[in-house]
Structure formats: C-alpha cells, structure tokens
Amino acid sequence: MTIDDALEKHTNRLMSIPGVVGVAAGEREGTPVVLVMIDRPAQELQGSGLPTHLEGFPVRLDHVGEISAF
Q1: Is residue 68 a part of any domain in this protein?
Q2: Domain-embedded: residue 69
Q3: Which end of the chain has a smaller Cβ tally under 10 Å, C or N?
Q4: CA–CA gap between residue 70 and residue 33 (Å, rounded)
C-alpha cells in the first residue's frame, strides 16, 4: 500500500476527529509520513483516537492552528 492509498482510505475518519483541520502526505528524515494538521496542541487531543501509525506509515502531528479560506 502506498501513502496515497493510506490517505484515501483514512482521510474521512481522521478529518472527523475534532481538532483535525487537514491531512496530507509528508516526509520526515527521508521517510514518508501521514501528516495530520491540528488546530490545538497535541496534548489536548490525547484520547481522541488519533493513531500513531496508519497502514505502516508513521503519523506526524503538526499544530497549524485554525485554517480558513481567504
């Protein structure tokens, strides 16, 4: 399974978690990661169901704040 396949399979579920504002493919030290953008500090999302891995890819949380269209 590719990271794009993993995103396609899990994006809707991840986006339904309060505090998640975006999901994308990313890279960390040359390794593909699932990037989950959140609107609050990660500590506030403990117990929310955010995984640490998806389909074998590590999940990286990125606190980006609120996202709004211009």
Answers
A1: no
A2: no
A3: C
A4: 28
**Residue in 30, 32, 21 with CA at minimum distance from that of residue 66:** 21
Residue 18 is predicted with a pLDDT of 94
Query: Of the ranges 21-25, 26-30, 56-60, 62-66, which one carries the lowest mean pLDDT score?
Result: 62-66
Q: What is the number of domains present in the chain?
A: 1
Residue 42 contacts residue 63 (beta carbons within 8 Å): yes
Is residue 19, in this structure, part of any structural domain at all?
yes
Average pLDDT rounded to a whole number, residues 52-58: 96
Angle CA 21–24–28, to nearest 5 = 120
Nearest to 1 by CA among 23, 34, 27: 34
Q: By three-state DSSP, how is residue 67 classified? A: coil
